[in-house]
Structures are given as C-alpha cells and as structure tokens.
C-alpha cells in the first residue's frame, strides 16, 4: 500500500498537518495541548464571516471545539531531514485560515464541505468574465441609411458623425431608425452620447431599439432629469419602467445612455450609473435609432453596438492559494482509491492540481513551511518519490473495468514539464521493462546446454514478452530511449538463442543444422521487427541473410538427390 493511501485511510481521525509555525515529533502521539489551544484561538479570533477567499461566501466558524477533534496521531513516516520533504506532498498543509477551517470540517467528517472551502480559496479568481467585443463602432457614421429630412414638423440632419433632430411641433415624435444586425438572444450593449440644446425639458428623447414598423422599445430621458423604459406596440404605450427621477442625469446637457443585456436581464445606465433593470424580451425587429418627442433639439453621436464574449481570467498560483491547491490535490487522490475502489474523476482532479503545485514558483515558501532552513528540499527527488507513489496506487486499476486506460493516464501528465512526463513514463512502465529483462535473464540460463534448449528458450522468450514489448512500443514509441533499450536487448537475446541453436546442431550434423534452422526463422524475423538501433538491425539482417542462403542451398541439394533417385 502506498504512503498516501496508508495515510489517507486514517485521515478522518489523524493528520500530519504542516504548519509554518511549528514542527512535529515522531515521538508524540498527539499535538501538545498548548499548540491546540493556540491554534483554536487563532481561528476563533478571526471574524465569523469567512471572506478571505470568496467575498460572496459567509461561513460561521465552529464556536466550540472538543479536544478529541484536535487530537492527531502521528504517522509512521520519518521526520528526518531526508525523509520529511519526500513524504510532505502527502500531508495536509495548514498554512492559512481556509486550511484551518477545511481541516476542522474534515475532523467532523464533512469532506465535501472541506473540498468546497479549498476550491473556493484556490479558484475564487479563476473565473470567466464577459468582455465587450465591438460589433458596430458607430452606426451613425457606418450606415448610409440615415436620410436627411426637413418639413414644418422637424429637421433630421446627419452632420459627419453626429445626427441632429430638431422639432418645431409641440406634439408627436420623430423616430428615425436604420437596420443593424443585432441578435436579441445574445448578450449585448447599445450606447449613445446625447446633447440637449433647447426646447421643453419635460419632453423625452433617447434610444429606440428592436423596431419593426410601429412596434419598438425606447430608453428615454428628459432634460429635467427623469428616465423611463417604454414598449410601444401598434400605438399601445406601455411603461416597462415608469418615469423616475435620476440624479445621474445632467439636466439639459450632455448624457451617455447605455443598455446592457446579459443572460435574461437588461440593465440601464446613465452616465455609467446603474438606474434599473428588467427581464429581457424579444425584439420586434432590427431597426435601431432615436426618438425625440415634442419641441426639442437633441444631437446624438457615437451610436455603438457590442456583443459580450467570454474571456478566461488568467489563473495564478500564489502564496495565498498554494497550500489550498496542494491540500485539494491530496484530498482528491485519497478519495480516488478510498476503500479499495477507484474513482477516475477524483484521480484526474488530484493530478491536475498536483501539476499546479509542482510547476509553480512557490517552492521556496513550501520548503520553509516543511521545516525551516534545516530541511533540504530536493525537487527532483521529491517529484520522483511522488510519481512512484501515484503509480503504485493506480497500477492495479489501469486498463481495468471501472478503472483508467493507459492513454487517459498518460494524458493527465501531458501538460507537465517534459522531464516530469518522461520520469512518469519511466516509473509507470518500469515493471514491464523489468519483467522483459527477467525473461531475457531466464533465457540466457536455460539455453546453455543443448540445441533444443536454445531454440526453446528463444521461442519462449518471444511468447512471454510479446504482449509487454508491444504495449511499450504502442505507448512509449520507438523514439523513447527506454523502449529502444529494452527492445534492442530483447532482439539481441532472441537472435543469440537462434545462433546458439544453429551452432550446436552444426557441431553434431551440419546437414541437419542447415535444414532445421528454418524452424527458427519466425523468431529471427520477429527480433528484426522489434529492434530499434541501426547496429542491432544490421546484425540481424546479416544473420538472417546467411540463414536464408543456407536454407536455399540445402533445399537445392535435396531436390538434386530426388532427381537422381528417380532417374535410377
């Protein structure tokens, strides 16, 4: 059983908890009472609102702790300067308040709560955010459909990047609109700059959107500081947001209007100040423009349309979340093989988190937390020990029902540094390579005496190693130096069994030897097929050519004798 499996099977009742403020002793069966009291005091002195790792999460810390919840039996792992860094990846690391709280929930048997705390602490900043992607930078300047118009009721003028509506009549409205291909089902923004010049300040003006004939929506304000969201349907006027006073409005001056739709909500902003929201509704059509009611003069500019797209927020491993990532990895790996079963998703999460742990630049802080300056942390030895433990824990589940395939397992390490990937492969495939080498050693012993024993040893060697060598070639590839090494050793051993078989027969009867060597050709050709290096391949080809020549000449002599006998 591996180190972390042994450890995890006891973790509900006993822990090795790394703390930057204390060291552990192998001779103690429990944390000293003074340490327990100081640690509890540290927790209870914090605010009852746990906001360090998620501003939206409020958790009440345990207000009462019994002594038995804090008891921790030490494991059998050595605390020596050499061994402690090796075993430390399989300990829970108590480095911050989130770790403290999560470990308390583990002591109380609530593993899922502990997992949730560590996930929020580690990844609270690892989220996708919606960012604006400009669809139409300015519909006024980019559309040629804004037609100038002037009569006794109003004048509509496009002046460069500005569109001006001046109305003389005190009733009715001007609603110029043009086409814009905005999908109402997506997330979007519509915004415009407005400038009120003159007129009656209690009349409305603003954005018209989603128009089809006389059906449209409008987000409008007044010069005296009010706003509304209106739905017009075939002459039916409906205030979705009734008229409200908005102190964000610059009265009778410049104002920026913004509509922002995310998911099923449309939010309204005036001069970047939120003023209200409503549930989104489908557009009537794809007409967009402006509305000015009554006797007013208003200019519109920078009529901009955007879509929202998801953008990944770059995740970073920091001193604050480093221990949470490490603890979460340990928790998932432990749950993956708990009680003798195998849970692939837990295992995958554990390895993915381990990658963050081992590839971050926080190792120096980790080393100091293990035991200060007195402990020497060797990253190469630690990762080798870690990978060996992981392989030992998972190997019996590889390519098994309810387990994990070799391909999936190797893919889990695909994003690790190249040297770590290679090290994992070496450790994972080591048992098969060792098995092949053992079979090669057995063949060398059993082929020593007779020709028959040499042939049998070679044929058995092919049979007992075929599955393993093909498995290694399929998963490592011929370019892998460890595969190339064992494949060449195996090919050389098979070839040597054939050479011994032929030479021993030749010493007894060269005619029998020349005829019977054909029986070993399949093994010799197989050896040539699996060999990698040019030197071994050339030697095999040389021997194979010689065998084929001998066999051909032997057959020719036998045919000649038969012909002579028939003639006689």
Mean pLDDT: 79
What structural class should be given to the helix and strand makeup? alpha+beta
- The rough form would be described as elongated
* Rg, Cα atoms, Å: 40 Å
Largest sheet at a glance? 9 strands, antiparallel
Terminus-to-terminus distance = 78 Å
Beta-strand content: 15-25%
Number of individual domains? 3
Question: How much helicity do the residues have?
Answer: 40-55%
The DSSP helix count reads 18
Low-confidence stretches: 11-79, 563-568
How many strand elements?
Answer: 18
Comma- or semicolon-separated keywords:
568 residues, alpha+beta, nine-stranded antiparallel sheet, Jelly Rolls, disordered C terminus, seven-stranded antiparallel sheet, 22% strand
Could you walk me through the main structural features you see in this protein, from its secondary elements to its overall organization?
This protein has helices at residues 3-8, 33-44, 67-70, 83-87, 97-107, 111-123, 139-142, 322-336, 344-359, 363-371, 379-394, 406-412, 418-446, 451-476, 481-508, 510-516, 521-530, 534-567, and strands at 17-19, 92-94, 128-136, 149-150, 154-159, 162-167, 173-174, 177-179, 188-199, 204-212, 215-222, 226-233, 236-245, 254-262, 265-270, 273-279, 287-293, 296-312. Helix content is 44%, strand content 22%. The strands form 3 sheets. Strands 3, 4, 5, 6, 9, 14, 15, 16 and 18 form a 9-stranded antiparallel sheet that branches. Strands 7, 8, 10, 11, 12, 13 and 17 form a 7-stranded antiparallel sheet that branches. It has 3 domains: 3-127 and 315-375, no CATH class; 135-312, Exo-inulinase, domain 1 (Jelly Rolls), CATH 2.60.120.560; 419-567, no CATH class. The chain is of the alpha+beta class and 568 residues long.
């Amino acid at each position: 059983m591996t180190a972390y499996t042994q450890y995890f099977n006891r973790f509900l009742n006993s822990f090795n908890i790394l703390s930057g403020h204390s060291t552990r002793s192998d001779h103690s069966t429990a944390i000293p009472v003074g340490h327990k009291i100081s640690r509890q005091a540290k927790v209870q002195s914090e605010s009852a609102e746990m906001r360090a790792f998620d501003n939206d999460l409020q958790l009440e810390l345990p207000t009462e702790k019994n002594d038995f919840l804090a008891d921790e039996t030490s494991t059998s792992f050595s605390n020596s300067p050499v061994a402690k860094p090796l075993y430390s990846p399989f300990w829970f690391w108590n480095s911050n308040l989130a770790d403290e709280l999560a470990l308390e929930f583990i002591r109380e048997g609530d593993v899922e709560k502990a997992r949730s705390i560590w996930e929020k602490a580690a990844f609270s900043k690892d989220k996708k955010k919606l960012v604006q992607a400009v669809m139409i930078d300015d519909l006024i300047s980019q559309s040629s459909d804004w037609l100038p118009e002037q009569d006794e009721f109003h004048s509509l003028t496009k002046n460069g990047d500005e569109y001006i509506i001046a109305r003389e009549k005190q009733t009715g409205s001007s609603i110029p609109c043009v086409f814009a291909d905005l999908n109402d089902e997506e997330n979007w923004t519509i915004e415009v700059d407005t400038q009120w010049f003159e007129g009656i300040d209690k009349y409305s003006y603003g954005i018209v959107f989603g128009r089809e004939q006389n059906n449209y929506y409008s987000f409008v304000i007044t010069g005296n500081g009010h706003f509304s969201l209106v739905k017009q349907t075939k002459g039916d006027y409906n205030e979705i947001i009734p008229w409200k006073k908005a102190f964000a409005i610059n009265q009778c001056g410049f104002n920026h209007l913004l509509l922002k739709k995310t998911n099923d909500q449309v939010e309204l902003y005036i001069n970047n100040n939120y003023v209200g929201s409503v549930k989104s509704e489908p557009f009537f059509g794809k007409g967009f423009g402006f509305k000015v009611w009554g006797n007013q003069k208003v200019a519109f500019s920078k009529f901009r349309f955007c879509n929202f797209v998801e953008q990944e927020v770059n995740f970073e491993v920091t001193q604050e979340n480093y221990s949470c990532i490490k603890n979460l990895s340990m928790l998932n790996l432990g749950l993956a093989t708990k009680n003798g079963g195998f849970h692939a998703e837990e295992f995958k999460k554990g390895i993915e988190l381990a990658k963050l742990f081992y590839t971050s630049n926080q190792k120096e802080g980790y080393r100091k937390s293990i035991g200060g300056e007195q402990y020497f942390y060797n990253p190469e030895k630690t990762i080798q020990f870690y990978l060996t433990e992981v392989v030992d824990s998972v190997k019996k589940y590889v390519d098994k029902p309810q387990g994990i395939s070799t391909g999936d397992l190797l893919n889990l390490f695909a994003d690790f540094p190249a040297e770590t990937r290679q090290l994992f492969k070496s450790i994972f495939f080591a048992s098969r390579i060792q098995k092949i080498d053992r079979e090669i050693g057995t063949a060398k012993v059993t082929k020593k005496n007779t020709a028959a024993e040499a042939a049998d040893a070679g044929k058995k060697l092919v049979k007992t190693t075929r599955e393993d060598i093909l498995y290694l070639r399929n998963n490592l590839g011929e370019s892998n130096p460890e595969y190339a090494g064992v494949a060449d050793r195996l090919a050389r051993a098979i070839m040597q069994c054939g050479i011994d078989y032929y030479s021993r027969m030749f010493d007894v009867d060269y005619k029998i030897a020349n005829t019977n060597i054909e029986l070993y050709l399949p093994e010799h050709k197989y050896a040539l097929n699996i060999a990698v290096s040019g030197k071994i391949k050339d030697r095999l080809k040389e021997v194979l050519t010689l065998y084929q020549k001998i066999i051909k000449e032997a057959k020719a002599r036998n045919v000649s004798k038969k012909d002579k006998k028939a003639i006689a």
